[in-house]
């Protein structure tokens, strides 16, 4: 019997850290997935509907924040609450992906796509106080 090797280790890529998303999309990939122009994706980032950070010199968006043909429903509200609490994009990303066993998804980002998204919004709102 052989042990399977995770795809990221087999390719030589570093595995995701505790605060890193498992996969990323470039902005053109997001535009294609959402069937929007690249300028509309840039506008969504400026409007805090999506979060993009530089990885290897390229602006990228965590793949799990783009659900199917839309951004996660509650993501813009959470991003605005985090910005109001003084979080920059990198800090907001760390907060979204920080492991938390008290959330049903294990992280705020994973929980945003489920039935307990309001709890994530409540916690983000509490950061401002």
Automatic annotation (TrEMBL):
Region Disordered, as annotated, extends over 1-21
Q: Which InterPro entries match?
A: Rv2175c_C (IPR041098), Rv2175c_wHTH (IPR048576)
Q: Which domain of life is it from?
A: Bacteria
Q: Tell me where in this chain the Rv2175c C-terminal domain is found.
A: 73-128
Q: What does the record give under GO molecular function? A: DNA binding
Bias kind Low complexity: ranges: 10-21
Q: Which residues form the DNA-binding protein Rv2175c wHTH domain?
A: 23-65
Q: Which Pfam family, just one, is annotated for this protein?
A: Rv2175c_wHTH
Name used for this protein in its record = Uncharacterized protein
Originating organism: Micromonospora palomenae
């Amino acid at each position: 019997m052989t042990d399977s090797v995770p795809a990221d280790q087999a390719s030589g890529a570093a595995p995701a850290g505790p605060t890193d998303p498992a996969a990323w999309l470039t902005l053109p990939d997001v535009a294609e997935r959402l069937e929007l122009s690249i300028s509309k994706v840039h506008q969504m980032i400026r409007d805090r509907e999506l979060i993009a950070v530089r990885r290897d010199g390229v602006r990228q968006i965590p793949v799990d924040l783009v659900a199917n043909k839309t951004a996660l429903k509650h993501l813009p509200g959470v991003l605005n609450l985090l910005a109001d609490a003084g979080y920059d994009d990198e800090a907001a990303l760390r907060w979204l992906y920080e492991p938390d066993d008290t959330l049903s998804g294990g992280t705020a980002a994973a929980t945003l796509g489920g039935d307990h998204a309001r709890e994530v919004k409540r916690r983000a709102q509490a950061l401002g106080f």
